[in-house]
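QA checklist item 7 of 12: single-chain prediction sanity check.
[x] sequence parsed
[x] length recorded as 266
[x] structure emitted
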Amino acid sequence: MYRVLIADDELIERKVLYKTLTRELGDQCTIWQAANGREALELFDEHDIQIAVLDIEMPGINGIEAAQEMRRRKSSCSIIFLTAFDDFSYAKKAIGIRVLDYLLKPCKEEELIGVLDEAMRLADKALLEEKGEEVQTIMEPVFKPSAELNAGDGQIRLHKVAEAIRQYMEENYVRDLSMQDVARVMNYSEAYFCKLFKQCFDKNFTTYLTECRVEAAKKLLTEPMVNVKEIGEAVGYNDSNYFAKVFKRVTGISPTEYRMSIFNRK
């Protein structure tokens, strides 16, 4: 079972979040609740938390301070900010702490669950690394955007940036990509890239990456001689069960059901 902590000083929002995560992930996670940053840190140590979902504005120790301390105590913990504050200074601090994602309230349920799915995958990866097992890492990117990306302004420039990001991710989605990796490739600061990505695609990085992989999997599922496990590996998922879970969350049906629906139409 994955060990998850949620911290929010608003009781109703915290309870709704707890109910949502319990309904969607309760068979995979044990979830603890904290009403402030101090309580969050106590639970973090007591239960060796792997995934923390934090509000930012909390009394006493706020979410930023709590996250900084969590990162110091356990570098492998996945930290997710879920906040109502769309403030660039907060986003910049969040990137500095190496948070997995920065989500704004109200957040779509599927977007939140998608980020939690990724956090669980990273928890598995961290466990393998602790055991000394080999984990595939991303190759050093070689793509560099052309100078024209920085030319012009407004919608023309944004369109060029979006196309460059889209091209890179479509060519590299099979790798173990992170937002920090792509920011570096695109020659942007991580904090600025976080905000820019949302402007370009109206969704967070994790959701976009998942959708890239699922769309690629759909194309491969039209090939009857390729099994589902091989397809999962081909689009970046070494665990076939995890691939099936993500695919069903995005499409509403399993990879096998999707394949059957294709051939039933023929």
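[x] summary fact logged: The longest strand covers residues 2-7.
[ ] second reviewer sign-off
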